[in-house]
Amino acid sequence: MERRDSATDRYLPEEKFNAVRERFSEKLAQDREYSDAEIRELIEETVEEYGRRTMLSILERRDISREVFNSVRRLGMLTDLLEDDSITEIMVNGLEPVYIEQGGRIRQLNRRFGSIQELENIAQHIAGMADRTVNTASPIVDAHLEDGSRVCIVLPPAAPDGPILTIRKFSRDTLTMRDLTAAGTISRQAAEFLADAVRARYNIFISGGTGAGKTTVLNALSEFIPPGERVITIEDSLELQLKTVKNLVRLEGRNATSDRKSAITIRDLIRASLRLRPDRIIVGEVRDEAAIDMLQAMNTGHAGSLSSGHGNSPPDMMERLATMCLMGMENMPMEAVRQQIASALELIIHLGRLQDGSRRVLSISEVRGVKNGVIQLGELFCFNQTSIRGGKVYGTLVRTTEPLHQTGKMHAAGITDYG
Q1: Where along the chain do its domains lie?
Q2: What does residue 188 show for φ and ψ, rounded to 5 degrees?
Q3: 74-171 belongs to CATH 1.10.357.10
Q4: Each residue of 185-204: pLDDT tens digit?
Q5: Same fold for the domain at 74-171 and the one at 177-412?
Q6: What is the pLDDT of residues 87-130, one digit of tens each?
Q7: Cα separations in angstroms, 219 against 94, 222, 228
Q8: Which of 96, 311, 319, 375 is the most exposed place for a label (fewest CB within 10 A)?
Q9: What is the CATH number of domain 177-412?
């Protein structure tokens, strides 16, 4: 059995790695904390002892030292993948080969974990770093790494073929709206409109599929929040990176755990946030009955709030929001739910991934009330695809002939470019 060295692509004999790892673990004192330097020194000492008995080469000693350190203090064979900025997603399906997303495409790597125990150790390490618990009693957990990357862990018995680990990476440098414009994600005209809408305190919802870039756009929009405003973010797992907001309060939910820690829901956090004197509330993503609390917050004096959710199109997102609201208020008539949505939200930004893997803003729509039981939307910007050349999609987000109806906030903010 061989083990791939994550840094050199060479293969190490699994038994040698395991022998050094086991002997190193025996040397660790359980009643003290070690610095990284002390860990490295202890590993090198262990490798030197083992190498004298087994005639390890200089390269093997170096590679085993690195891999043992990564397995103890970092994330083992995933370490180099996490450090590669071109990789946006890492997918581990038990002991099957590891998959990554790179350049918008998913591909299989020639590497896999050597044992279930090794993979479970990595999963436990990640959960521990985020102060989460994952085990057979609570086999599903969402967590985050120190750099903000989102992690979903599923252990047996929920994953009968072995632990599942998916890491959605985030850029080390938060992308600005200028970056998104330069990348073609959004047009300059649309970016300027959204900047004005944020400054004027429009309530904005971002919809799109998994990996469409909702969090990235939400982060970019936050740079237009005027200085001095108090912003509260609410998330299941911390992902947002609002670099320009100084008066920032971050709240994070928690699932109920087997060690009797009670759940902290998004609904709990939204209600708590109303007592923390927010100017704006940003809900990272709504996916359940918390939608009704988010909408009520927007309808009760917290203008300029932002949120996101999974939807295939703006009309689909409106219906999904209505369904989520009914989960929390079963006796509320659907007509009243739709009125609540139309009163709270003013703009919908919809993102998608094109066939070349690129992420684009496909539509910006205005919410214009309810008519005949249907939430009315006016599309202000739409993506115009012009061609496909060499597998790459070309096009841009263009202004439609639809006018902005709700201009009152723009005018109140001294912005007179829209009607």
Answers
A1: 1-73, 74-171, 177-412
A2: -60, -40
A3: no
A4: 999 999 999 999 999 999 99
A5: no
A6: 989 999 999 999 999 887 899 998 888 788 778 888 888 887 77
A7: 33, 5, 17
A8: 96
A9: 3.40.50.300
